[in-house]
Write a structure and sequence with these properties.
Length: 438
Amino acid sequence: MPPINRPQYEGTLTPRIEEFVYSILTELSPDKITQEEIDELLRCPVVKAPITAITLIGLSYFGDYTHKDEKIQTFIRGCFEKMKGSLRTTFAQMMSAIYIGNACAEWGVVPDKKNWILDKILVLQPGRYTFMGTMGEIDQVRYYSNRQIDIPYSQILHIVNNPHLAFNDPGGISDLSTAIAAVKAWKILMAEMVIAGQRKATPLTVGYYDPDAPATPLYNADGTPQVDEFGEQLTELPQEQLAGQLQGLENRTVLVTSAKNKVEPVANNADPDFFVEALRICHKLILMSFLFPETGLEAIGSGGSGDSNLNKGHMALLRLNVEQLADRIKEEMLEKLVRPLIQWNFGDQEDWGSFANQPQKEEDRLALFDALVGAVVQQVFSVDDLNVINKLYELAGLPTVEKLPTPDQPDQGFGLGLTDLDFGYWRQFETNGHAHTH
């Protein structure tokens, strides 16, 4: 075996964040979507509903802090209980990274006798902070209030939405940004539907004037003729007279006009199904921006509850996506907040504990299993994705694997050929009840 050469250099040559390539401290604003756009979009109920649902689902993944050392577990739990504010509120606000693109929270400690304990976790208001960095790394977060405040990055919990699309951009990618066009179309359709509904309830009134009718002289209230600046009597054409009478017709029930004029209502034959279908498409596009299934909420014009099995499968995929975001929040909190607290008070440890997931119901586990299988069949996920395959093993009650078997390698006796996966077997596996026994 040839000798292994020593590495030529340490680390990487390319900067992690391209904007921070200089040794001079550089400012980078995380705004990809303006606060005005966020406020406007959140007024749309089709946007607010999935955000609220995703936040509530996300909170279900934040259980109590646990550690194998009872003293450390009691201490960290006590820090969260005694800190100013609510830990669950902090989790919920950090989930705002979904529609903002990122979320940042400053944390601080205070002395308590011989220990350092958590003072509070303050989620920074969107639009008021920027990232400062040098040589490809973030050094601090600059917050703008009544004065400029530079916060060390080590004191910041930083969550990036859609990291697989952001490519180390600290601003992340907002799900709301992909919904902007659909929301604008939704607002236009809603306004047009209101007008159409008004027309449907109150038919358009059309007046026909007699073109041969003479102009009508105009008189003042006392009976004297109305004259112009040259002393000529003013007159009103028949079409002007009729138009003036029709202007107040919407608030009146009586119209008086000449017998030579013709007035009649015209029914509005607009098809209401057009608006129902157009709004449904907008709703679907908006919900797709959040990977939220259309079946998760009542669909316009559905006429029923729909396919419950399809709904379970869609919601299971949504839960998987939300769980990944919740896991990133927990990992950030463990690494940047819990770890220093433990080191300052107990010294280095083998591990820093975890935030346990709340127990998952059996039917939810099976629904997620089936949904994942369907997603791989439809090539939403690759059969060569080790994380996906291990998730399937976990849901099926089987031990996970460290690598995928090659075509000429047995699949470790699990009966699951991963390179040419027989998904019919997966469904049979679940149907036969094996998943219930693990």
